[in-house]
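## retry 2 of 3
previous attempt timed out at serialization; input unchanged, resubmitting
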Amino acid sequence: MSRWLRRLRILIACLVLVGATAVFALGGDLGRQLAPFLAHTQLLPSFIRLLTTGSAIAGLSVLAILLLTLLAGRWYCACLCPLGVLQDVAGAFGQTFRRLKRSQRRKDRDGYLRRAARTCLLVAAIVSGTAGSLFLVNLVDPYSIFGRSATALVRPIASLGRRGLSTVLEKADIFALAGGDPIQLAWGTVALTALLLLVPVVMALFRGRLYCNSICPVGALLATLSRFSKARIRTQNEACTGCGMCVRRCRADCIVLTEDKKAQVNAAECVLCLDCVGLCPTQALLYGTESPSCSAQTDGGRRELLALGTTAAAAIVALPLRSLAAAGFVPEEGVMPIVPPGGVSFDHFTSACTGCHLCVVLCPGHVLQPRISAHGGKGAFQPALDYLTGACDYDCNLCSQVCPSGAILPLTLPDKKRVQIGMVYLHEDRCAVYQRGEECGACIEVCPTHAVYPEDRDGILHPVTDGTICVGCGACENVCPQSPRAITIEALALHGTALDPLANDHSAPPATDPGLAEEDFPF
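## retry succeeded, writing output
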């Protein structure tokens, strides 16, 4: 039974890793189809979505993962967390090098510092999140680390490969892979993303699942619950010879030999890779419920329970101070980033966005771009609309349909077309039409709501703006040929509702002379 479970775990882990990589690295129709399923299997985004929106589906996802951990151990860490699976791949790669293999077999007998570190990080993440900042969560959440890494590091390579293959196929008149814009890289974001990915990968190369049991806040929470799991890896004392093979191989550093030379597994640290079950030459280690012939560690984890109780108390104390703390996290006026439609407000978006960059991958206009610190202390790596790289497609609501954490609430397309995320502002001192009398009209031509419209002044059409019907899509700013832009969008801290474009329709052609007969026109 245990060996069969090990094979099933490996299969599920491979599917999760391949599926998550496809979502973040390839995007497109495949990403849109897989994204909702992937999001529902991830604990932290589902938990934040539950708190933010009260989503029943998110609540069921959280409940299912917590109950699974409480009853059967850390199966989430074993095969549902893509970063955890990636660490297993890195650890397996390290096993091929003698020095790294010896390092992985070096064990931390006490583990006190490791447990203390993860508990402190969990406390800090919960308290800072309650106070209104997800900055720390954005840096250490495993799902977000994997998503950002695949987006910034794998996606450009996949895009380059697709373009190369498309070039080859086009010579044979096959255009199935034609199209697709080149990926624009912000090298600072890529470098920091790679650095943060190196932390768990290097840890895995030298010490297996060290990141999961020393830094990851999700791992810290599930470790506390798994102490009470009914199903766990147990030792058949009569069969155990004390050879220590399981101790040396354990990737989570959770197996020790007792004084009577019997293997004992710490259920809180165990990530259920089940390697020890397949490795044991006498089949002394089995995964299952309690049996008279089996023993398992029964440490109640009083320190961790006390720490979680302290965390809950600190969170309750931090909650009334949320407005005070959040005010100190907001960027200065005039540099506030524009958050996407469905983000409701700057505070709502930044208080729920985990920085996974799923919306960045799937945005067809490439206007959503990751920002390291543009949101101030409210969050790290959270995306914002950058109108120098694109514009928010007026007929697109995709980001609101795929956001896993509820930072971008679902919007129907008609509702999205009325959401006002920013306000247009015309800088007449920069505009070529106002300053030099040159014909331009680029901003007028692309505005989908006619919030930028022409006004005839001495035979020259001047751009004029109407903020009541502007949705802040940024099409005008994106196409403006001036540098710096003569027309810009300023962020709204709280999204508004634009009037119906037909209410103030400035697109009607100028009136003609009523005495001019229809036959007088030359066409």
